[in-house]
Design a protein that fits this description.
324 residues, 7-stranded mixed beta sheet, 9 helices, 29% helix, binds zinc ion
Length: 324
């Protein structure tokens, strides 16, 4: 559906307190997108993720399945995790919430693969709904964890000191074995993946690309990192210095990447459930092959970013508080 004819997006921030001692500040950030997207970032502690209704909904189990060739889906309903298998071991991108890790392990086993054969772990970005399960997956697999420098600190300290969320969205800390830079590649068993830094949503938000062969065809696959600006400050005292320029860079990078199979860290970003349903039905061509969807995704979030930027500029010029 076209982005333009939907209601305008809004950000709603609700603060709910249990007791300071018990739960600290319990914060839910809900972002509703004009695609009818709802993205939730929830909870304050590692153990609260599953007790929050929104997180639970995002973390609903989905039977694992093959997307194409040696590329599989391991994640939950909204929180994605991907597997790439090779003869020399496997690669997992994203670990979901801490509570998603056991689901990912079960899904891996259900597909007939062993956790000990997972050799490399990757991450889209250092938020609790994508990095929370990495520590457990690393511990169970003994895999090497490769991450960007921009997100390294958050990953190592379990989300403390996030430029927007402070110490409220925590997850199990995970040790990093290798830092990857912009445009650098990793290789395992003939599979090459490239890291593209697409910062803004987090400082080290990373988009990964690879090629997947399926039958006689080879596809360019993009695992797009979150491009959402949430309620970040983009003008004046920015959420972090250079954040607006980072987002601009991110959209430029995303637009340059060739894409046949379009994937991302949140299911709603790429119409995951609908495509999965189509694939299960045997739709041909494979519904995950969606270059147009990739372009619409970028256009939607680039427009949204610029609208936020302009609104904040206007508000700054008139001396009124920026609308959220
Ligand atoms: Zn995020």
């Amino acid at each position: 559906m076209p982005a333009g004819d939907q209601e305008s997006e809004f950000i709603q921030i609700a603060h709910r307190k249990k007791s300071e001692r018990e739960a600290g500040l319990r914060r839910i950030v809900a972002v509703k997108y004009s695609f009818h997207f709802i993205l939730w970032l929830a909870t304050t502690s590692i153990t609260l993720g599953q007790s929050d209704p929104q997180s639970r909904e995002m973390n609903q189990p989905v039977p694992p399945f093959r997307i194409a060739g040696n590329l599989y889906y391991l994640g939950a309903k909204e929180i994605c995790s991907f597997l790439i298998t090779t003869p020399q071991g496997h690669i997992i991108l994203d670990g979901g919430f801490a509570e998603t890790a056991p689901q990912i392990e079960r899904n891996l086993a259900q597909l007939g693969f062993k956790i000990e054969d997972v050799k490399i772990l990757l991450n889209s970005h250092a938020h609790l709904d994508h990095a929370g399960g990495l520590a457990e997956l690393k511990q169970k697999s003994g895999a090497k964890f490769i991450a960007s420098a921009g997100d390294a600190e958050l990953l190592r300290n379990g989300g403390h000191g996030d430029f927007r969320f402070g110490d409220t969205l925590l997850f199990p800390p995970v040790a990093i074995d290798q830092i990857i830079g912009d445009g650098e590649t990793i290789q395992l068993g003939g599979q090459k993946l490239t890291a593209w830094l697409t910062p803004g949503h987090t400082r080290g938000n990373t988009t990964w690309t690879t090629k997947i062969s399926d039958g006689a065809k080879t596809y360019d696959v993009v695992f797009a990192g979150s491009p959402t600006a949430l309620d970040y400050k983009l003008v004046g005292k920015e959420s972090y210095p250079g954040i607006a320029a980072d987002f601009e860079k991110t959209f430029t990078v995303l637009k340059k990447l060739p894409c046949d199979i379009f994937l991302s860290d949140h299911g709603t970003f790429f119409w995951f459930l609908k495509k999965r349903e189509g694939l299960m039905r045997g739709d041909n061509p494979n519904p995950f092959i969606d270059p147009d969807g990739y372009k619409r995704f970028i256009a939607h979030f680039e427009k949204e970013f610029h609208e936020k930027l302009e609104a904040q500029k206007k508000a700054a010029a008139s001396g009124t508080p920026a609308p959220e």
